[in-house]
Amino acid sequence: MGATRLILPIISILISIFYFISTLNLPKAKLGDPNGPLYFPMMVSIFLFIVSVIYLIKELKNHYPKNEEIKLLFKGRVPFLIISTLVLSLIYTLIFERVGFLISTMLFMAAVLFIVNGKEKWKVNISVAVLFSLGSWYAFSQLLAVSLP
Fold it and tell me: Which InterPro entries does the protein's record reference (predicted)?
């Protein structure tokens, strides 16, 4: 009985992701805000995703009440780290083509590193974000001749 209760939130998460991707493929408005038709379905898909993840977490808590590893997922900073990384990943995917690979990857890496390491290690965070982004850009763009946005 317990494992079957996990199926619905997982399916809901997949539907919300599909709905979000489908929303991005809607035609732009010819009058007014070109992205106007995207806002409501995008909000619905994000809301469905958040509610489904919360439901999945509750079902996991109920399904595995004695499992210490699962309990560790819900203690301390771990929920914040998971949610903030998911939000930053979503923002990264939305700005990737507009801003380009190099800048968006630097911003994403720096934001994740600042969340994980804190402000105290700002020199390490910025240098890792810049060096990783430049290194991966060089590897893909120059060495492998892959066209990046």
Answer: DUF1468
